[in-house]
Amino acid sequence: MTLKGKYAIITGGAGGIGKATAKLFLNEGAAGILLVDLSEKNLEEAKKELADKRIHTHASNVSKPSDVKAYTDKAVALFGQLDIVFLNAGTEGVVKPLTEYSEEEFDLVMNVNVKGGWLGLKYAFPHMQKAGGAIMITSSVAGLTGTAKMVAYTTSKHAVIGTMRVAAKEGAPFNIRVNTIHPGPVENRMMRSLEDQMAPGAGEQVKKGFESMVPLGRYAVNEDIANMAAYLASDNAKYITGATFVVDGGFSA
């Protein structure tokens, strides 16, 4: 029960990693969780799947300041405090050479992945400065290296690290810890999208190629990422901030 009595926000909460993390947080004793996602329908399905009265939902576009302020204010109104924020919302964008990327496609990814993370920090910090807490931002192994034909996603996931390091420095005086999590390929919707874009109609072959590059021989499952999020959210990680945590089965080694 490493999160007993703690209250959390999870963005991207209706996705695979978001739901797995919420489930683990509940099992670890979290007193309340606000799931945030773009789709009200997907949030309702996630809430039904988790089937726990401690789960609350709020539909928001994480790239809009008014939406981010609204979900943060709702969490504080519901719980009276904010201990954990998992800024997990993200989008993969399209797979194409950088010369063929449109400005609109680039801006969409940057707005969700980078601006969305910054806004989450901006509105969470004032509520966490009294008692401290833990903030995790989902980056990627793509934030540590380059990936051809994924200029927006790769750029955004590198940028997240800079955002985290600034937030870790500014949060430290208030005991707000901020770290990034870097998944490798994960068995979920995002990887299906990337596989199909990389080789339309032959996504399974792309998957096999990626798996052959993972020393542990498989994709991560959502729970692998949730385990890292739960650790960083807990007091077991109370001396850890400003760091990058890779969960990729050795993919980036």
TrEMBL record:
Record Gene3D superfamilies: NAD(P)-binding Rossmann-like Domain
Signal peptide: none
Any single Pfam family the record assigns to this protein: adh_short_C2
CDD domains attached to this UniProt entry: SDR_c
InterPro entries reported for this sequence: NAD(P)-bd_dom_sf, SDR_fam
Family to which this protein belongs: Belongs to the short-chain dehydrogenases/reductases (SDR) family.
Protein's UniProt keywords contain Phosphoprotein: no
Keyword flag Oxidoreductase: yes
UniProt name for this protein: NAD(P)-dependent dehydrogenase (Short-subunit alcohol dehydrogenase family)
Chain ranges passing through the membrane: none
Protein keywords: Oxidoreductase
GO molecular function, one term: oxidoreductase activity
Organism: Cecembia calidifontis
